[in-house]
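Minutes, project check-in
Item: structure for the 112-residue chain
Input as provided by the requester:
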Amino acid sequence: MNSRTSTATKEDWTGRRVGALRTVHKIHGYRSAEKNGEWLTLTEAAKKLGVSAHRVRRLIKEGALPTEQVVPDAPHQIRATDLEKDEVTQFPRHRGPCRIKMENQKSLFPGI
């Protein structure tokens, strides 16, 4: 059984066909795809902030960084100016793994 979706005329969807359909029905693409600097992808936002994509997801989840999505589970579209908000720039930084040195703790690797 073929699970692929085809056009009404049983043809495969191509980039050109999708583009034509979107043009006819005035369906805008992702704003971040326009590459004018106003909208960024999650990866681009992470690079601009100098952090990991995981950290940007956390900013989004915590409500510090607003995003737009065309539909649920679609890629996040992030307005570049939102990266300058205090909620984003002052979001608590991860300090690395917690390693507490206990006074009487024996080493797992003596001699190293």
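Outcome recorded: Strands lie at 39-40, 78-79.
No further action items on this chain.
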